[in-house]
Design goal:
Elements: H1 2-63, E1 67-70, E2 73-79, E3 83-88, E4 91-97, H2 106-124, H3 128-137, H4 142-156, E5 160-165, E6 168-172, E7 176-181, E8 187-191, E9 198-201, E10 204-212, E11 215-222, E12 227-233
Protein name: Competence type IV pilus minor pilin ComGF
Transmembrane segments: 12-34, 103-126
Organism: Lactococcus petauri
């Protein structure tokens, strides 16, 4: 009887030890996964900031500003006769030769966006847990915003400013166009009479469009919170 009790106690102790080992392994695994998720979040945040810095630098060049603080990014531009240095928060972001200033193009912006999306997709493929966690971590509309800026900039290039009226932007191109917020919560392009349907970005709470001379400012407010600002300067009208 005593021997049976000893065996029973030994078995219980063994099972308890196994449970503790399994729990320790589980805690270790969860810790490793969480650390990797945190690293993924940091990497994505860094890439998003770099892309937004490129975007704001593009706006600074478009509007002829030497200093521009916008969307949480601070850009300064220094020019010499041969090159242009672009700094973000005091650190050198780009150094461009004067004959290469055209590098700020839609193609380069989209290329940077594709790199970001590719990196993001790679991390999503790691595990289902990573997928859900990273998806929740990147609900700040960064990618939608970057694509919107590229699309709108492409639409406005080669166009002339007509007017800003009733919170809509009117431009003249090969056809007259209108841009603004719809009642469905998307920012869309239509013809000057409001006909046609080409949404450029969704899930908006508000959009405010203003004009100062040939420069327009568009402030988008997202449904889930947060504002983003887009600046663009049209060529001056000939007298």
């Amino acid at each position: 009887m005593e021997a049976e009790n000893i065996r029973k106690e030994s078995l219980e102790a063994y099972l308890l030890l196994e449970s503790l080992i399994a729990m320790s392994l589980l805690v270790f695994f969860v810790t490793v996964v969480l650390e990797q998720v945190i690293q993924v979040k940091k990497q994505i945040a860094m890439e998003n900031r770099e892309i937004e810095a490129l975007n704001v630098a593009h706006m600074a060049v478009d509007t002829g500003k030497k200093y521009l603080k916008l969307n949480g990014v601070e850009i300064s531009i220094e020019e010499t006769s041969t090159q242009m240095t672009i700094r973000e928060s005091g650190e050198v972001l780009f150094v461009l030769e004067k004959n290469k200033v055209t590098a700020f193009t839609l193609l380069e912006s989209l290329l940077a966006l594709l790199v970001l999306v590719g990196t993001f997709s790679l991390f999503l493929g790691m595990t289902k847990m990573f997928h859900e966690e990273v998806k929740r971590a990147t609900t700040d509309h960064t990618q939608d915003w970057q694509l919107f800026c590229s699309l709108l900039r492409s639409e406005l290039e080669g166009a002339s400013l007509d007017k800003v009226e009733n919170n809509y932007l009117y431009v003249r191109k090969h056809v007259n166009l209108r841009f603004g917020l719809s009642s469905q919560g998307d920012f869309r392009k239509t013809n000057a009479n409001g006909r046609g349907y080409q949404p450029m970005i969704h899930h908006l709470k508000n959009a405010k469009i203003s004009q100062e001379g040939e420069q327009i400012k568009i402030i988008l407010t997202f449904e889930k919170g947060g504002d983003r600002t887009f600046l663009y300067t049209f060529p001056e009208k000939e007298s």
